[in-house]
Protein 1
Amino acid sequence: MAKRGNGEGCIRQRGDKSWEGIYTCGYDKNGKLKRRSVYGKTRGEVQKKLREVLSSIDNGDYVDPAKLTCNEWFDDWLKRYLMNTKESTRAQYELYLRLYVRPSIGHVKLQKVSFFMVKNIILDCIAEDLSAKTIRNLNGIMHHAFADAIKVRLIKENPADGQDLPKVQKKKMLFLEGESRAAFCNEIKGKQYEYLFFIALFTGMRQGELLGLTWDAVDFNQKTITISQQLKRDRKIGSKVGYVIDSTKTNNIRTICPAPIVFDLLKKIRREQMENRLKHGADFDNPYNLVFTNETGHHLVSVYVLKVFKARAKAIGLPDLRFHDLRHSHVVMRAENGDDMKSVSEDLGHSDIRTTANIYAHVSQRMKEESAKRMQALAEAIYAN
């Protein structure tokens, strides 16, 4: 055993070259001294963990790992182990745990949680008719929490491992092409959110990115738009549902160069916004300097924007069209225009180029079929003579 440093507890190097710190935390019911251990890759790491444990014992807030409940572990995990996670993601984890996990196993000691306890949570969610995606996300959150508990040697196995989860049915991509694209553009003309929908189609920006777009991100001289944030619903526990500015879905910043008509529309929006500012005076408030606002400068509500969009889509006979399908339709136009797949994928901020590739494959197949039809018409014309 290595020599003990001042105030560091008992530290030794193990056979696998990792380090172990041993401390005592009172006596058991038989009067025997209880010894516990912390582990780490280096002596310094273990020394730090020991100091934290000894400090918590001195302060009276120490929890014996053997007595640690799931609720206590989740509280600590959300607070300390997810420090580098986006706030919105932590809020979602907290919500899922509060709604579906804590009521079932929150009171259970962490070391006593079994595979079947987690399985019962999943079965209950299936019985409540939650979507497959929600259930898979929930299991992923539990798996993450238990995996971190394994790392700090609180448990040996992950009870969320190997669970039988429902399969997510992938939604079919829809596109606006040819006649449907023209019909959509005619349908939105002169109506509410016309510019928003048109710019979405001709930039491929996500709904949240459009609603969170600010004027300082628009460069009229260089004809570029920098996409670095989005407007999204705030799902913090215990607070009213509101909206916050957050980073983009993939945390990436990208700059796009859309068609000049997009900037013509942006100039119209800016002019209308200035007129509204003069009209409403002190009642006009646009604290984020957003491009898309209502008459008094407040941000748009995504749910209502979607409602209007669905009404426009239904009017042209496409009730299943989603706002996100405008991104797919943008890729179709770029593919038809001969733009290379990699550039399009980068402009849209796709984390996986396969999403772009699937749309390109669709366009390629359709163009082949159209070419075959043209060749058939030519051949028939020749033989008719």
Protein 2
Amino acid sequence: MTREVEVRVQFGSFIIDLTCEREDVADFIKVHFDETSSAAPSDVSLKVSVLSDENIPNIESGKSYVHSVDKHKFNFGPDLIKGSWNDKKRTCRLALSESILSTEEIWLLNRIMCRIFYTLFFKEKGDDKKAFIVHSSAVIKNGKGYVFFGPAGSGKSTVAHFSERCEVLHDDMNLVVMSQKGSLVQGIPFNPTQLRLSDRRGPLSMFFSLHKSDEAKIEKGSRDEFASAVLPEIFLPQPVLSGGRRQAFQYLLNCVNELAEKVPYYRLFFKRDKSFWDPIEALEDVHGGYQQMPH
């Protein structure tokens, strides 16, 4: 009899327990998710198995995948990840395609985990609290949080690499939370390929879009420019049992507009060295955007 293996993950303020029906599935998940030693009770329990269907879908790079919902069940791919959600019991069943395990396309599971986070967040949040997940590199330096975003190849991992004396939260995806008490950034449990994850969070001081250049410099961006640049890099805020993109996008617009009023946005031009921190530090001396940590 195959032994079940439990994996515990902290995603934002939520504790997620994954019980894997196969050891190889648990090993696969452990490689890509950081476990937390938190003794707090879990917010949701996931039962993870493997789809038995012999018709294994092919995974294609750059392909657009669909998330469909039928009452309490969902199907992503289709037929790459199937599952069901019990809101009353706070339980979720996930069945992964063998193709995800064999090709190690963990980002497909990441999308479901993001939806699970949003499911929990929208259930718990107060009216004054907003959150979204952004494709970015985030760093805490001298107690202040900085978010660097851009499309693939823009330099997010490069920024993280040349921030080794700072605390890198994550070099690919981070969580931004806003409330009346301020804004913060926190790494999420998806394991980057080169860095050790941090479960810390920090008060958010500045947002930067990344632009490669022969010299390090900073340009102030407008609120509209920020929205236009950052929206394509945000994971659409949708729960696991939602297919309503219009409502999710309106929520996202509200988040971005509110953030633009609270946190300054700049275009960062940089080359492959740590010199980009010089104009940031000079700007911080003038900006003084340090906020108290929200609770």
Protein 3
Amino acid sequence: MKKPIIGLVGRFEKKDFDSIFIHDEYRVAILNSGGIPLLLLPPYFEQMKEKTAFYDDITFEYRELMIPLLDCCDGFLFSGGSEWFGYEEFIFQYAYQKNKPVLGICLGMQLMACTFYFHEFNSDKTVPIKSNILHQSTKEYVHEIKIMDSKLKKILGSESIFVNSRHSSCILKNDFFKVSSMSEDEVIESIEIPNKKFMIGVQWHPESLFWKDDYAKKIFQAFLESCLDN
């Protein structure tokens, strides 16, 4: 049986730029859901030091270098973190244009929501959370989310679940995505890109709950199954 190849988007550690990381929980979740993880790395270095904005002056050259590798992938996973870079935006744009499945987690969800708006507004369109509900915690389960009618609800088979939470900012609504779940304080907890095979972003970390939580497993299983259709 064919196993889908999942591009795991590596991210620079901006403190000193001497490492590119992807937490191993993502790799393990992909492997145990029936996929083959493939680490995707940026094809340039010096420009990373400047800022997180998309580098239009070098974009074309480096896009051409990345496309053959992206063509090998059946889907893409964008992980959590603190800041994304231009090559990550390009990978998402590629997936969007090719209708290849995407799972965005935490910062990865925020990237999905903001990529096509970044240059127009010169902002990533995220805001600090001000709430009486704790959203940044090391606890296994932190708060409940309510799930609207959506692809995510069909996957999970539930109107509400408890999730972990390790984020200090949240996204604002825009017309590009559909909100599929929210916390009690109306922080957006998951999104879907309409009219695409599978483009779901979640603000929590199902990879950290994979071995204990059936809902986390269902998310990865549905993602991998969608990648088999390519």
